[in-house]
């Protein structure tokens, strides 16, 4: 979360609007208690009462058919996400987990109704099979553990969000109307001091939305008027199809090249940049960035709104998204018990989590 921006509003609404008894039930005291919320230093919005908005949210749950169990699933999951943000592993925890950290993991386990020992194990160790098919365990270091718990929080929120949408659709859908809802929760176009794979995917998504909007609201309507023999002026629009094509072309598009590079054992940031430059240096929306004095490798994309410089360093490693798969494995493992809160969410949304590494990253964007 950037400074002066808030996380999803429901977190602030819930922490502010829960009753005293509910706060005790979900181990909540105040907004300042949670690391995820205080990072941006913006806890409230002038003119907006989070407690009032939370009352409206709960009322909406009631109207749409959410029962007491459903609401508990939502609030307990959201509380678990906030408490995950308060986990901070350091090197001293490599040999023995500190008691304060164990207590925090116990709280998260209670909120998710899972075994705390299993949760601790899944957050600190990784199981895999050697080339000889022998099961082995790898102790994660502090950096890996912190990344994993953040990825778990993201995956849990995505699963909860999908579950809520499915519940709403099951309430709205009838054989006569077939009504459902779909939501695009989209980050706006991003330009930061350092732009990597995350910004590349966000901006590609915005290119796709921009292109679809042009097609649906301008070009298609203009064609209908022309077909209806109406007198209309010539239409001049900023059609960004060439930029969308630069990203999405099979085998030669930017995304396809990035995907294919991670499957090569000899791939590197340099080899990725060389492939991109060789393939697209003549493309109208692509620009090479050659600076012999800089060790940082870049390329530029001319988007519909402006030109953005992207750093290649670390892009392949980020695209592998190994931690995203680990967090999915944690949810899948915890959901195996029919009594857990996780199993309620995972049963309806597991198909959404079984995706490829790049699909995971792009799902997070979209």
Distance N terminus to C terminus?
Answer: 16 Å
Structural class determined from secondary elements = mainly alpha
Please outline the major beta sheet: 3 strands, antiparallel
- Estimate percent helicity: 55-70%
Q: Give the radius of gyration.
A: 24 Å
Mean residue pLDDT? 82
Identify the overall geometry. Answer: globular
Count of extended strands = 5
The topology string of helices and strands comes to HHHHHHHEEHHHHHEEEHHHH
Strand order, main sheet: write it out: 3-4-5
Enumerate how many helices there are, as a single number.
16
Can I get a quick summary?
The protein has 366 residues and is mainly alpha-helical.
Can you characterise this structure?
With 366 residues, this protein is mainly alpha-helical. The protein has helices at 9-17, 20-25, 35-38, 50-64, 68-84, 99-112, 116-124, 142-172, 197-227, 241-248, 254-262, 269-280, 315-320, 322-334, 341-353, 357-365; strands at residues 125-129, 135-139, 286-289, 298-302, 307-311. The strands form two sheets. The protein has a three-stranded antiparallel beta sheet, covered by helices on one side. The chain has a two-stranded antiparallel sheet with strand order 1-2.
How do the helices and strands line up, and which of them pair or pack?
Elements: H1 9-17, H2 20-25, H3 35-38, H4 50-64, H5 68-84, H6 99-112, H7 116-124, E1 125-129, E2 135-139, H8 142-172, H9 197-227, H10 241-248, H11 254-262, H12 269-280, E3 286-289, E4 298-302, E5 307-311, H13 315-320, H14 322-334, H15 341-353, H16 357-365
Antiparallel strand pairs: 1-2, 3-4, 4-5
Helix pairs in contact: 1-4, 5-6, 5-8, 6-7, 8-14, 8-15, 9-10, 11-12, 14-15
